[in-house]
Amino acid sequence: MGWLCVEVNRLALTIYMVVVLLLVSATSIALEISPSQLRQTAQQKYGPQGVKNLEQWFSTLSNLQGIPEDQQLKEVNAFWNRIALAGEDINIWGAEDYWATPLETLGRAAADCEDYVIGKYFSLIHLGVPADKLRLIYVRARVGGASIAHMVLGYYPSPNAEPLLLDNLTGIIRPASQRPDLTPVFSFNSKGVYVSGSAPGSVDRISRWRGLLDKMRSEGFKP
């Protein structure tokens, strides 16, 4: 089952240790990128194929500018599900739990569930989707009778709306109520951690997300 984001006791560790703060606020501007720096980094680290994947991303983002959000969601979900082969961090990066930047995912053309979500999240932020409409959601997913740790991206059309789920396990974006195979554990955004629909909890463990943003800045992103 290497094509799934498998359980390695990290869900419990994630709740306790993982970064849960997004530094892009609900009122922030869209994610800025430096195409020339990203191209240079891609060429140096990943070669021609990495640059080719990056150019495909640039083209996708350009084509999606200014169109309705529902279409942006559909195309962004399809792009990331197509561009990267699903795998496990230990095989892709040699680490048990590694959060890849969008460029790293494009360069390796491989991702686990968090990496797909990160790529989709920052693509939508760049396109101008407000950060308060998006949450990174940890779930338990039932696949073939087994329950595994998994992450999806939730899009909330309005504050109290049922989220639409962008998932690398399916190309179809469905409301949460139409995904009985997923059991939410917690989600997070710039306002905090949400557990079973409760009010945001305190966010004070930011090392992993901050580390991801630092990597992105060094590559040519301005998150």
Kindly describe this structure.
This protein has helices at about 10-15, 35-65, 70-85, 90, 100-110, 115-125, 205-220; strands spanning about 30-35, 85, 110, 135-145, 145-155, 165, 175, 180-190, 190-195, 220. It is an alpha+beta fold. The protein has a single domain (about 10-15, about 30-220), classed as C8orf32 fold (Roll). Strands 7-6-5-4-8-9 form a 6-stranded antiparallel sheet. The protein has a two-stranded antiparallel ribbon with strand order 1-10. A two-stranded parallel sheet has the order 2-3. The longest helix is centred in the N-terminal third of the chain and has 30 residues, at about 35-65. The N and C termini lie far apart (about 35 Å). The relative contact order is 0.21. Mean pLDDT is about 85; it is low at about 15-30 and about 200-205.
> Per DSSP, what share of the residues sits in E-state strands of 2 or more residues?
15-25%
**How far apart are the first and last residues' alpha carbons, in Å?**
34 Å
Mean pLDDT: 85
Structural class: alpha+beta
CATH topology category name: C8orf32 fold
Overall 3D geometry?
globular
> With helices defined by DSSP (H or I, 4 residues minimum), what is the helix count?
7
Q: What order do the strands of the largest sheet run in, or round the barrel if closed?
A: 7-6-5-4-8-9
* Major pleated sheet: 6 strands, antiparallel
Keywords:
C8orf32 fold, 41% helix, 20% strand, single chain, 10 strands, alpha+beta, two-stranded antiparallel sheet
List the helices and strands and how they pair.
Elements: H1 10-17, E1 32-33, H2 35-64, H3 69-83, E2 85-86, H4 89-92, H5 102-108, E3 110-111, H6 113-126, E4 134-143, E5 146-155, E6 164-166, E7 174-175, E8 182-189, E9 192-194, H7 207-219, E10 221-222
Parallel strand pairs: 2-3
Antiparallel strand pairs: 1-10, 4-5, 4-8, 5-6, 6-7, 8-9
